[in-house]
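Hi W., the flavin-adenine dinucleotide complex you wanted:
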Amino acid sequence: MYKDDGIIIIGGGVIGICTAYYLSSYGQKVTVLDKGKIGHGSSFGNCGLIVPSHSIPIAAPGVVLQGLKWMFDSTSPFYIKPRFNYELIMWLWKFMKACNYRKTQKGIEALVKLTTESMGLYEQIMDANPELDCNFRKDGLLMVYKTAEGYSLGLHESEEVGSHGVQSQRMTNQELQRFEPGLRGDLHGGVYYPDDGHFDPYKFVDQLSKLVKSKGVEIIEDAEVKDLIVSGNRIDKIITPKEEYTPNWTIITAGAWSPNLSKKIGAELPVQPAKGYSVSYNRSGLSIKTPMLLSEAKIGVNPVIDGIRLAGTLELTGIDSSINQRRVQAIVSGAHEYLTGDSAKFEITNVWTGMRPVTPDGLPVIDRIPNIENLIVATGHAMLGMTMGPVTGRAVSEIVAGNSSSIDLTPLKYGRF
Ligand SMILES: Cc1cc2nc3c(=O)[nH]c(=O)nc-3n(C[C@H](O)[C@H](O)[C@H](O)COP(=O)(O)OP(=O)(O)OC[C@H]3O[C@@H](n4cnc5c(N)ncnc54)[C@H](O)[C@@H]3O)c2cc1C
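Structure:
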């Protein structure tokens, strides 16, 4: 007898769980498989900022030169582990091709639409489900600049996203001090983005997964997908160590691990893991109330996660969850160039590392894979995966339902690289 296991979502991070949320009312059986625990990938210890303000793709003019300078400094925010790896070399080549004015402008336009739409969807999700207790707040983000050069670049970026409708407000150093007394007095200025938000990222994914479970979605942990078997133009079997599934639809939302899965069916997905760190503190030494980006140091600050979390660095190291103390120290000392407080009083409660899934042009892939009619990939959200969770989940559900998409998915096509 023909077995139909409905929609199988592979990967239970923010993208997979938001997809399950939007598919849970679709009327088909939905199952989420994760190789570990739900929400324990990149969605776990990240900075938890929901940031339409940040809609400038990682691939932008000038980034290659800056990256080359940083590469030789072991404490810089960017690092590539030197190694011969064909996928990495091809990715870097495509990345360099994407670092031009025209592509960046198109990227900004696409990202602003995705991120602002997603912020609206977050508000809808929170209004509809007040039991989601994850400290969600939409009270803005402050970009802080130490140098005149950084501030001038920041103003330029605010104009770029501003031309697509993202509101911002410039602040002098004096205004910064009044707004956020936890900042040092020797900074240059800031830009405040009132429409950004923040939350506890893991609490959100964990609680949303419980919500979708209560609506009938099956959540299976410790179920690593080892193989995908194609028959004709369909995924016929999904193989895990304990079970085999016969999917009606397969959705790959496996973050930085997604290329390992697409390879099983011969589809190349140019996604590199971009490692980052976060350091969480209790509140004893710091008195910060505003979410911030410490711009030159590229460090995010989120004050609502049972304390304060700092996050930063982007390293192309492959999948590697080892902790390099020099990087951790670089984040801690980098933050102290902006924040007041005595580091001796801080108690570090957690040091974490995670893998952002990054495409060469910095935009996600949300698309069907050619020649396989029941497969959708949704990954490559880079530094904006938390921000773009809801808009991605809704887009996938619209593809499954055969409905026209609420947003233009053309810039997110699988075959664009
Ligand atoms: C330091 C840092 C700070 C960040 N800060 C922010 C921020 O402030 N705002 C923001 O918007 N974004 C931020 N991000 C980015 C964000 O964390 C990611 O873009 C997002 O979490 C990606 O979500 P995902 O669901 O695609 O991947 P993940 O959360 O990594 O989930 C993928 C899941 O797939 C599972 N999986 C993998 N392979 C298999 C398999 N074969 N079978 C079954 N399951 C599998 C994994 O176990 C994992 O749970 C940050 C990232 C880092 C590293």
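DSSP finds ten helices and 20 strands in the chain.

W.
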